[in-house]
Amino acid sequence: MLAELSPSAAGAPASSARRQLHVVINAGSGQHDAQQTQAVLEEVFQAAGHVTQFVRLGHPADLAAACERAAAQAAAGGGVLVAVGGDGTINMAAAAALGHGCALGVIPQGTFNYLARDHGIPLDAEAAARALVRARPQPVQVGLVNDHLFLVNASLGLYPQVLQDREAFKSRLGRRRWVALLAAVATVFRWHRRLRLEIELDGERTMLTTTTLFVGNNRLQVEQVGLEEEVAQRTGRGRLAGVVTRPVGAWTLLWLAVRGALGRLGDVDQVQTFSFHELRVRVLGARRVKVATDGEVLLMAPPLRFAAAARRLLLMVPGPEDRVPRE
Hints:
Blueprint: E1 2-4, E2 20-25, H1 34-47, E3 51-57, H2 63-76, E4 80-85, H3 87-100, E5 103-108, H4 114-118, H5 125-134, E6 136-140, E7 143-145, E8 148-150, E9 153-157, H6 158-173, H7 177-190, E10 195-201, E11 204-210, E12 212-216, H8 219-224, H9 229-234, E13 240-245, H10 250-261, E14 271-276, E15 278-283, E16 289-293, E17 296-300, E18 304-308, E19 313-317
Parallel strand pairs: 2-3, 2-4, 4-5
Antiparallel strand pairs: 1-3, 6-19, 7-8, 7-18, 9-12, 9-16, 10-11, 10-15, 12-13, 13-14, 15-18, 16-17
């Protein structure tokens, strides 16, 4: 069930300098304590004179409904929906914010936090809150796969299985980056499937066999794995980045992963990269396929359409005095 708390500044007179902040906290993200995080955020927001209302989740299944309700309230009052959590939490909050037409604020609490890092949002909760109270909304690109939103990436094939295995490892070993890497290695050596795809790009159809198809919407992530500069520069500017791997064995996949970690993935023969606005994909022999979007795995029915959305999300981006370096 949802545990709603009373507004922290209930009854306070309205002011043009104040915002209504509707804060959704996912206690299952990262390694933070939800009560402690809420106390820190409440202190910062109250000191800035903002009217805040917190929603803590009693169960992960409540997340979508919580985001929808908070986004509707934010839109009705000219406020901001604030997501406290990892990429999956922020994804759901972004979909709700985009649908209701309100701005989205982010307090990153996940493992990789690519959206926050790409836009200079501090990773420390208190610093992110202080940046948020002075932030201004900026339109940012979102990606779509069959009308399902993604902010960072979407994929099918090996990567969704890596994500599922990663969650199983994290439930036993904790939410740390080395656990994610260990899970990825284990999955690679168990994975023997190949996808047969028919891809339509720029009016041309191509048949290919691959272990995974990866679509990136986050410029920082695309840059860090070392895709071609032209592809990276276009990502987030009306276009998405596409990556497909040739059918290779487990050791070669690990070698590719190491090159990606070193920022040198774009210059190997086993990987094909490209930039696009819209990509249509048929998965031959599959009625349903696992698709990962921002760390969450869904089942979708092909054909799949990947595209840069026409509408942009209003993201609360820190001013120069609060912005941290992209890294």
